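Structure first, sequence second, as always.
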């Protein structure tokens, strides 16, 4: 898998996330092929693919997610979510997983680190680099390779079986994820990967008593040793714990401040990253600033009447008045004739106070800065 870069700043409501395809080229290309055919609210969306010939790097432009689930867990001492919050995320995970399976795709690496969250709390399944697309005419979901994270692998993989049910692997990994986000623990641990796989292969684990009977029963069904007896998506959906509305008894875990900028709001823009990648020209920036100011600040006023106000364009001293064309003015009230006299500092000040104009300027800079070719 390639490296992911979250593009942070302060300009836009919608952002992007870049994933650099610098390692595992085959996995990256496979992920691109899979993502291009997927459209679901709980699966990360691929916006574009760019290629920089000079640097020989591929960039996957994803929809922006404000942080990962693992990052949220790591921000609190007990490493777990309140039950109502964990339930909400888990339901979204099952929705996304059901969609992937309906498209014949086995994810193979479900874990908190691959579950991202948007600013409104929507969960996105990401990182399909090791996923497998089943043959359209395959009779079953049997797979032969696995490259997922060791702690989330099922007994059939830990024991080295040649073939295994891909969908049941995802169910197991989702069960380990649910166990982790509700207890702060892992059902199986080991000092090294060999010991870890030995423990997973035996299938012995303990569910903390404070999980309660309904959650414990769901976990046992998802962490069933025998894949044939392991819960299916539909069995999970019909389970009492899944269908129950859980009361909020404590505050939810909040999205932590950005580790790079310490910005608790995690505002975003791709502009600083592109400036660093492709260079920055101050003269072009000034031209863009003025052009965007002239283009975006000018609007035509629309005549309207406030409640209780007599419309002066229809009646003055009992006489009718002609209605002329609206005068072109700026959003801040400045007439267009005064725009050319604005100083550079005044234009910058106006730009910084206008979020909509800043977003437009950011888009203009992105187009100028990016020298990548679309794939």
């Amino acid at each position: 898998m390639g490296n992911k870069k979250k593009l942070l700043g302060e300009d836009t409501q919608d952002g992007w996330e870049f994933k650099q395809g610098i390692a595992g080229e085959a996995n990256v290309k496979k992920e691109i092929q899979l993502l291009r055919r997927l459209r679901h609210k709980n699966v990360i969306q691929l916006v574009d693919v760019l290629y920089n010939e000079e640097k020989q790097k591929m960039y996957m432009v994803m929809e922006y997610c404000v942080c990962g689930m693992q990052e949220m867990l790591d921000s609190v001492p007990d490493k777990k979510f309140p039950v109502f919050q964990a339930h909400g995320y888990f339901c979204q995970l099952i929705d996304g997983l059901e969609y992937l399976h309906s498209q014949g795709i086995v994810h193979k690496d479900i874990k908190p680190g691959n579950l991202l969250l948007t600013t409104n709390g929507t969960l996105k399944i990401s990182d399909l680099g090791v996923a497998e697309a089943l043959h359209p005419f395959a009779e079953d979901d049997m797979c032969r390779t696995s490259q997922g994270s060791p702690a989330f692998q099922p007994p059939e993989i830990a024991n080295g079986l040649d073939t295994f049910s891909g969908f049941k692997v995802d169910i197991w990994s989702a069960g380990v994820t649910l166990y982790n986000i509700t207890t702060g623990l892992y059902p199986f641990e080991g000092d090294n990967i060999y010991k870890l796989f030995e423990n997973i292969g035996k299938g012995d684990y303990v569910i903390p008593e404070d999980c309660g009977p309904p959650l414990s029963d769901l976990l046992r069904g998802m962490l069933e040793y025998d894949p044939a007896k392991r819960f299916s998506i539909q069995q999970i959906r019909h389970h009492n714990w899944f269908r129950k509305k859980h009361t909020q008894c404590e505050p939810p875990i909040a999205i932590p401040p950005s580790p790079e900028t310490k910005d608790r709001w995690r505002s975003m823009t791709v502009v600083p990253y592109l400036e660093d990648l492709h260079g920055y020209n101050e003269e072009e920036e000034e031209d863009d600033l003025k052009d965007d100011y002239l283009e975006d600040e000018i609007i035509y006023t629309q005549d309207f009447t406030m409640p209780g106000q007599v419309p002066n364009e229809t009646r003055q001293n009992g006489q009718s008045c002609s209605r002329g064309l609206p005068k072109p003015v700026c959003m801040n009230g400045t007439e267009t004739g005064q725009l050319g006299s604005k100083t550079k500092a005044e234009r910058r000040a106006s730009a910084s106070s206008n979020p909509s104009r800043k977003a437009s300027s950011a888009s203009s800079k992105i187009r100028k800065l990016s020298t990548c070719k679309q794939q």
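Margin note: The chain has 13 helices and 15 strands.
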